[in-house]
Amino acid sequence: MFQLLTDSECGLSTATLRAHHVAVIPFHFTVNGHTIASDLDDNQQLENFYAQLQQGVQPSTAAINVGEYVTFFKPYVQAGTPILFMGLSSGLSSSFHNAELARDLLLETFPTADIQVVDTLAACAGEGRLILEASRLQATGATLAETVAWLTSHRLQQWFTVDNLNFLYHGGRISRASATVGTLFQIKPLLDVDAHGKLRVVDKIRTRHHALAALSTKVLAALEYDPQQTVLIATSGDWDAAKRVRDLILAQAPQANLQIGPIGPTIACHTGFGCVAVFVTGPQDRDQSI
């Protein structure tokens, strides 16, 4: 039996992770001079954080460092337990690279250890969905190697829209001019996560209403491919907008299996308040799904 590990940006509650026997290492974020460990179970912490984003506060984040990963992995390695770590996309954070460095350091001392680190090329609920799939495979008797092979051959389509362009500007995703003009004309970009796990703008849509409708259209296309799949909807605090996307989908696909959850602080620091994201599987890979 192998141990499943992940980070706190997976969009899953501690209770869900515990139920699937997944151990978690937290990211940290700093807001108003206070550094806090990300905790999706702390609803008050999340709502306070979202409220500060809405007020224009610019928090900062830090990658999980190599030493933290070594400490996280080491007890399992010392016990001789194979481990599978699934982390936030390397295209969005240097944290995953630090996990690779921690693995290499541990292998110098424990050369026979089985330490697998998988770049999910995903964020928040997309990362979480792959973790739940890994747990399902493990429960059906899949080996560690088989689970890794499945994870690296199955990638999600992930679509986002944001409400405040200033956060994309501060994160280097768009220019100051684009943020200023976009805000003036109510441009709401549609973004996805590409095949390298990086955010990219794929469309520019007038008004929030139409951007949310575009998300629902992406989901409906994916449901034609696999109507039984679970569609995950995530938001950085705008629950009404997430429910609007859900309702648009259900109006066309009333049997759809939909779940709504939070976007963690590490990602929300870069999207701002009001980001809404959807996570689906479709018939095309990411570079062809635009």
TrEMBL record:
GO MF terms held by the record: lipid binding
Domain of life: Bacteria
Keywords, alphabetical: Lipid-binding
Known role: May bind long-chain fatty acids, such as palmitate, and may play a role in lipid transport or fatty acid metabolism.
Protein name: DegV family protein
Species name: Levilactobacillus zymae
